[in-house]
Amino acid sequence: MRILVIHGPNLNILGRRNKVIYGEKTLDEINELIEQQAAEIDTEVSIIQANSEGDLVDFIQKESNGADGIIINAGALTHYGLSIRDALLDTNLPVVEVHLSNIYAREEFRQRSVIAPIAKGQVTGLGWRGYIAALRTLVAELRGKAWQ
């Protein structure tokens, strides 16, 4: 089983970016936790972070053929990244959207996601643990063990 994990713009500066909203962990620390959890459930993860929408689209198009699902935190592209939405939709893979903060408790423009309508689900407001919840749930569902 192989899951793509996609981090969008500005997530590369986690750990020094508004810690009250985004937490203390760096992206490297979060990725390490994702990789540890993936190993525990016998799953491979391919992880990318990019500040460019085009780089994320290129990754999705290139890597989706050998993947079983996608976890994405598109950052600010969540609200207007239609090319990412289209690339995700074209994969025909299940997508789980993740946000470190509760986007529905923030500014009005952050409360709209162009990805949510095509996603299997969304995890928001759980900090780095949202990635773990998304990974475990997505893999369980793909293996036919959802909610067990």
What would you note in describing this structure?
- The protein is of the alpha/beta class.
- It has a single domain (2-142), classed as Rossmann fold (3-Layer(aba) Sandwich), CATH 3.40.50.
- It is 36% helix and 18% strand.
- It contains five helices and five strands; from the N terminus they run βααβαβαββα.
- The chain has helices at residues 19-22, 27-40, 53-63, 82-91, 129-142, and strands at residues 2-7, 44-49, 69-73, 95-99, 121-124.
- The protein has a five-stranded parallel sheet, with helices on both faces.
- Helix 4 links the parallel strand 3 (69-73) and strand 4 (95-99).
- Helix 2 (27-40) runs parallel beside helix 5 and helix 3 (53-63) runs parallel beside helix 4.
- The protein is globular, with a radius of gyration of 14 Å.
- The two termini are 18 Å apart.
- The model has no long low-confidence stretch (mean pLDDT 93).
* Beta-strand segment tally: 5
Rounded average pLDDT: 93
User: How many helices in DSSP terms?
Assistant: 5
Q: N-to-C terminal Cα separation, in Å?
A: 18 Å
The CATH superfamily label reads Dehydroquinase, class II
Can you write the helix and strand succession as a string?
Answer: EHHEHEHEEH
Helix content: 25-40%
Number of domains: 1
Radius of gyration: 14 Å
The computed structural class is: alpha/beta
Morphology call? globular
